[in-house]
Amino acid sequence: MDVNIFGVPLQEIVDWFLVQPLYGQILVLIGVIAVLALAVVIAYYVIKGVAYLIYYLLKGIYYLLKGIGLLFYKLCEALYYAISGKEKPNANIQEQQGVEVMQKPVQQVPQLQPQKVVQFVDHDAAFCTECGNEFSQAMAQQLHEKGFVYCINCGKGFKSNFMQIEVQ
Ligand SMILES: [Zn+2]
Known about the structure:
Elements: E1 4-5, E2 8-9, H1 10-19, H2 22-84, H3 89-116, E3 118-121, H4 137-146, E4 148-150, E5 157-160, H5 161-167
Parallel strand pairs: 3-5
Antiparallel strand pairs: 1-2, 4-5
The structure holds zinc ion.
């Protein structure tokens, strides 16, 4: 046999093994199995490590290429809009959305405020002092009968001072 293990011919090892007592042979077998098991475990982790290395390397290359592609796309896009002179639609949509988000909480406040701002007017007042619009017939009637009215145009509240005099 030409098989050598660490420079020692296999036949020599087999001969040495056969002359050992039984417990020695068992110990050697256990040792060989332990070494083989260790080798398998080490090989497993090495292969796993290499696989992870290749995986993250490929992933890194993928993100790098993606980043370069995205950069290239953005550059082309910027160049296109710079040359054509068109406005970038994405930016506009984002701006509009941003404005909408900003406006929403603000819009709710003026709806409540006019009811608090009440101005005393003559019970036969015919014009809104806030927006200048003429009171509609219904508004004038409500002001006259109930003593208060909200402008249908701007929402400003009016209270008839005639009614207040009556209450006092
Ligand atoms: Zn008004």
